[in-house]
Every structure is written in C-alpha cells, then in structure tokens.
Amino acid sequence: MNRLALFIPLILCIALGAFLFSSLDKDPQELPSALVGQPFPNFALEELNDPERLVSSADFRGESQNGQVVLVNIWATWCFACRIEHPYLNGLAEQGVAIIGLNYKDNRQLAQQWLAERGDPYQMTIFDPQGTLGIDLGVYGAPETYLVDAQGIIRHRRVGVVDERIWNKEFRDLYNQLVEQAND
Predict the structure, then answer these.
(1) Phi, then psi, of 182 in degrees rounded to 5
(2) pLDDT digits (tens, 9 = 90+) for 51-90
(3) Which superfamily does 33-183 belong to?
(4) Torsion sign, CA atoms 133, 138, 143, 147
C-alpha cells in the first residue's frame, strides 16, 4: 500500500502533462467571448476629445449610428501592440471602414496626444479611464477589436493586433456581408 502512494505524484504529473500537451494546438488569440451574438453592453461614458459629450450604448444601435456596421477597437497609450496595429487601422479608416475607439484605462491628455501624433482613425473615441466598459466587454487587455453590426450586436471579437492578414482572414468577409445587409 505504501509503495502505491509513492506513485501517486508521478501519475498526477503525467496526467497534468498530458492535459497541457493536448492544449498546445489552441491559438491563444482565439479566446471565446460570451458576448458574440449579444447586444453591445449598456454604458454611458465621455468622449475622449469632448468630455461634455456622453457616448452611450444607444450609439451602437441603428437609430444612433444610422445602421452603421463598426469596429470597436480597444487601445491605450501604454499598449505596445497598439502602436503596431494603429497604422493599419488608419488605412482601414481611409478605405471607409467605420471604427470607434475605446481608450482603456488611460490618461486623457496622453491619449489625445497619441492620436494627434499617429493619426486618428476613429469616428469617435470612448474614454474609459476606470475600465468599466472594458470589464463589461470581458477585455483581457489591449488591443482587442469587436465587430458590431448595424443593430448593435457583437458579431466577432479579436484579441490582439489586427493587421492585413487578420483583417482578411477574420473580419473582411463578415464586415462586407454585414454592411451589405445594413444597406438592404
């Protein structure tokens, strides 16, 4: 009986190793979101460049955004990967892709300066200094990007940088399909 007890740690170690090894084929960027298929969370926060203007969940519904499909991009000045992603977002905005920024747990002045220096691809930027909307969205960190349809329903979520490869693989076709549906 005592010899069997000696093998219990070895058996547990092998079982744990097998479990971890079976998880190696998972892409850490493909984190599931319970919000896909759900309405954008209710909120009311200040606009980054106009503290007098409140942005709310109504801005993500057809009546306020005129049936517009949008990307909601979570970013921050402290986020190194956001610096990598930002030029591509500028390019998407130039192509007519509607993007709303969510400045997450950041300093207003630094964020305004950051956009002034790097370009501003956002139709508007929600200022979320405490991260309350980020918490409601289940944000892991910046950058994250959500595709929201014309009725304010979240259709896709990406954790990490959106670049040309990710846009073409994950967003482009769905974005175009949703824009087409909104225009019908």
Answers:
(1) -70, -30
(2) 999 999 887 765 445 568 999 999 999 999 999 999 999 9
(3) Glutaredoxin (3.40.30.10)
(4) negative
User: How far apart (Å, rounded) are the C-alpha atoms in residues 4 and 154?
Assistant: 53
Residue 21, judged by CB atoms within 10 A of its CB (0-12, 13-18, 19+), counts as: exposed
Of 151, 153, 99, give the one whose Cα is nearest residue 126.
99
Whole-number Å distance between alpha carbons of 24 and 118: 37
Identify whether the C-beta of residue 141 lies closer than 8 Å to the C-beta of residue 127.
no
* Greatest Cα-to-Cα distance within the chain, rounded to the nearest angstrom: 74
Percent above pLDDT 90 for the chain = 72
| 138 neighbors 48 (Cβ within 8 angstroms) | no
Is residue 33's pLDDT more than 70? no
AA letter at 165: R
pTM of the model: 0.81
Residue 16 to residue 50: CA distance in whole angstroms: 52
